Amino acid sequence: MKYASLFMVLTLTVCGCDDVGRSTSSGNTKSERDNTAVNQRDRSGTSKTPLDQNENQKDIDITASIRKQVVDTKMSVNAQNVKIMTQDGQVTLRGPLATTDEKSRIEVIARKVAGESKVDSQLEVASAK
Q1: pTM: predicted TM-score of the whole model, two decimal places
Q2: Which of 25, 35, 94, 101 could form an SS bridge with 122, CB 3.0 to 4.6 Å?
Q3: What is the three-state SS of the chain?
Q4: Each residue of 54-108: pLDDT tens digit?
């Protein structure tokens, strides 16, 4: 029983740790994962978000097929987590990617599933630092 309690305390301690105070390679303590601008863009109402995904079966099937094929690839976690939203057969892709190759591969998958003229790619490739 003592070991179980000790294990739980250690687990909670480790899980509660974060990297807030760590500095980046440039010496800044502010996290480079700040996506405030993206969040503001999403709140504006002009950009599609996953909440815009239609609930009809055809749109759900299109999104699911694209997602399955993207996840089955050997791409980065960011690529596998792009936003895929379908409304009335029109697919919108959004999210940050590491390379133009990933962007192209995801767009090819989406066009193969939804149709050549049915994909609006808003995928963003991170600039090299």
Answers
A1: 0.61
A2: 94
A3: CHHHHHHHHHHHHHHHCCCCCCCCCCCCCCCCCCCHHHHHHHHCCCCCCHHHCCCCHHHHHHHHHHHHHHHCCCCCHHHHCCEEEEECCEEEEEEEECCHHHHHHHHHHHHHHHCHHHEEEEEEECCCC
A4: 578 999 999 999 999 999 998 999 999 999 999 999 999 999 998 999 999 999 9
